[in-house]
Amino acid sequence: MISYSLPGFVKREFGKTAEQSHEVGKTMIASIAELISDRIGSMPAGERRAAQTLIANYPLTGLKTVAEFSAAAGVSSPTILRFVARLGFQNYPEFQSALQDELAAQLQSPATRTLNPSATGGAASPMLEATLDNMRETFRHLSDKQLADIAARLAERRGKTFLIGGRFTDPLARYMAAHLAIIQPDVHHLAGQESIWRDRLIDMGKRDVLVIFDIRRYQESLIRFAEKAHERGVQIVLFTDQWLSPIARFARHVIAGRTAVPSAWDSSAALFVVAETLIGAMTRQLEAAGAKRIRDLESLR
Amino acid sequence: MISYSLPGFVKREFGKTAEQSHEVGKTMIASIAELISDRIGSMPAGERRAAQTLIANYPLTGLKTVAEFSAAAGVSSPTILRFVARLGFQNYPEFQSALQDELAAQLQSPATRTLNPSATGGAASPMLEATLDNMRETFRHLSDKQLADIAARLAERRGKTFLIGGRFTDPLARYMAAHLAIIQPDVHHLAGQESIWRDRLIDMGKRDVLVIFDIRRYQESLIRFAEKAHERGVQIVLFTDQWLSPIARFARHVIAGRTAVPSAWDSSAALFVVAETLIGAMTRQLEAAGAKRIRDLESLR
DNA sequence: GGAGCGCTGTATCTTATGTTACGTATTTTG
DNA sequence: CAAAATACGTAACATAAGATACAGCGCTCC
Questions:
Q1: Please, where are the H alpha helices in chain A?
Q2: Which residue pairs from A85-90 have beta carbons closer than 8 angstroms and sit at least 24 positions apart in sequence?
Q3: CA torsion angle for A68, A73, A75, A81 (degrees, to 10)?
Q4: Residue percentage of chain A with pLDDT more than 70
């Protein structure tokens, strides 16, 4: 039998001029990035890997040689070329030229770049916009001094640090605990059932700090626990939403984050960022002591 | 462990050969542009034209071929090469690599380019600014279609959903699992030791989806686990950083979030927001089926 | 479970890119 | 003004880059 037609994409749609703009359906594809993410669904595994690596740090990988590109994506060179061909380019240099042109346009008008979010992703992701707003709002109501105070309180290591959260916020407590446990000793995340934490109360005293995450609907069990801890003189740092969990009345420090987003769920993203900021601030404060500790931990690996 | 990720990107040494080592005194040369404008005075006419052409639309001309560069500058190819050699580079490719590295650093932190816009009032927390940039940047590389695809994949409930994360990202997996478990059945977060997950592999098959969170340093145990799951035909959705965890090679869908912030730690905030967005999208998709399910759950309280 | 198709990598080939040698032009200097 | 030194371009070269052919393999669909 004679060789039948090669895989269909090779030189299928390239009759026209090189400068043609790519159209997909009714929507004009402006950037190559869009073109890729539009077609990534209909790509075979190898080419998809190429696409993902390119998008991950766009457009730099595309400016390198085919060999480097293929190595970065973990595929072979021909796969890269097939990938480029599928996007509609005649050859690799043409693809690179397109990327360079695009880059030139970007670099020339930095203004468009900042406008882009509202242009491309604006209407597309009201979720993102709301989240960004939440963060700005949250930090607007949160002075640097306040953050520094809390960081100092947590960093002064007179006692132990306990962290706990509610149904959806407990992962935030875990996240924070995972970091704090590295830069200082005696950090404990309270997991499991209510009865288990309750028993830990006997370990807590005036010198200790309890970090609680609680947004609505505020959990009864957490409130009870906070109250008991407060009675024992434990300092409470509360992460909550703008409507303030009842725990606020027991708390030494209260961080109120915005949580409203156009979704069925509340967003904990703002609180997450506050937590990260706090972790960063504490790490800086404990740098001297922490550096040794981190070295020690490293050597244990 | 602690990765100091921000500024110090460009660590390439320009020209160690330096036959005529024009020592630049005490001032460190940060960018190639500076290097050029520093030495442009002591250049012959032809090379000066090359320098001016490059600076005129920096750095794009330098990324093209020698022939194109020479044509743009109106000089011959050897002049370009001599120009590059005078800057201290061994050869043209090395020069191009340096330009690309520089460009990568620029593109990575858009904050440095648009120096402190009056958005929040300038001296606000650089941590917050970096985080907001990370999110915008992350979503810029993430098309709505891609998100919708992933949401659809997770929402089509032909099989089970498993979630797992690394040392610092496992809380993200938990957070997502906590929400998904409400809107659909058969959602499992894989906790505890490696041996425990491994045993769960026998429950996983082609119809199932595994959501993995993995940012650097990428954990060996996770990679092994992902590989085994992949061999069993499990569809993998990967949340990673822009450098892409090795798991990307097994993944059906890859979400690359920006993680660089001016802190000792990497930030998972951008990935957190993507996760929330995904949760929201899935909730919307499963509204019909989910509504009943949520009512049922309510009545169980 | 088998047949067909399509995707992917290895090896080979071809192109064009960067590099170098050398002669001419231009500038500099005594 | 003359001679030397330096700069520049033309043309040939070597190398590395992109492109292609082919075969193995896995996957899907009967």
A1: 32-39, 45-56, 60-63, 66-73, 77-86, 92-108, 110-119, 126-140, 144-155, 170-183, 194-200, 220-231, 269-285, 287-300
A2: A85/A9, A85/A10, A85/A11, A86/A9, A86/A39, A86/A43, A86/A47, A87/A22, A87/A32, A87/A35, A87/A36, A87/A39, A88/A13, A88/A14, A88/A22, A88/A35, A90/A14, A90/A18
A3: -70
A4: 80
CB-nearest to A38 from B131, B145, B174 is B145
Helix (H, G, I), strand (E, B) or coil at B232: coil
Q: Which of B63, B119, B167 sits opposite A100 (nearest CB)?
A: B63
Q: Nearest 5 degrees, angle CA B142-CA B140-CA B117?
A: 155
Amino acid A167 reads R
User: Considering only CB atoms, which chain B residues are within 8 Å of A33?
Assistant: 141
Instruction: Quickly tell me which residue has 């039998």 as its tokens.
Output: A1
Among A293, A283, A244, A277, smallest CA distance to A172 is for: A277
Per-residue pLDDT of chain A (301 residues; tens, 9 = 90+): 233 333 333 333 333 333 334 444 445 556 888 888 888 888 898 999 999 999 988 889 999 999 999 999 999 999 999 999 999 999 999 999 999 999 888 776 544 444 344 334 344 488 999 999 999 999 988 888 888 889 998 988 788 999 999 999 999 999 999 999 998 899 999 998 888 999 999 999 999 999 999 998 899 999 999 999 999 999 999 999 989 999 998 999 999 999 999 998 999 999 999 999 999 999 988 876 656 676 776 677 6
Q: Report d(CA B142, CA B149) in Å as an integer.
A: 11
Q: What is the pTM of this model?
A: 0.80
B142 torsion bin: left (phi>0), alpha (psi -120 to 50), beta (else): beta
Picking from A145, A81, A176, A49, the residue whose alpha carbon sits closest to that of residue B256 is A49
Separation of A44 CA and D26 C1' (Å): 13
**pLDDT of res. B10:** 31
Question: On chain C, which bases lie within 7 A of the protein's CB atoms?
Answer: 6-11, 16-21
Please state, in angstroms and as integers, the Cα–Cα distance from residue A230 to each residue in A67, A72, A218, A245, B210, following that order: 62, 54, 17, 15, 41
Q: How many Å apart are CA B73 and CA B89, to the nearest integer?
A: 19
B247/B238 Cα distance (integer angstroms): 7
Nearest Cα residue in chain A from B249:
A49
> To the nearest whole number, what is the mean pLDDT of chain A?
83
For residue A209, the cross-strand partners are A161, A235
CA-CA distance, A140 to A258, in Å (whole number)? Answer: 11
pLDDT grade, residue B16 (50/70/90)? very low
How far is the C-alpha of B175 from the C-alpha of B285, rounded, in Å? Answer: 19
Q: Are B161 and B188 in contact (CB under 8 A)?
A: yes
DSSP for residue B247: G
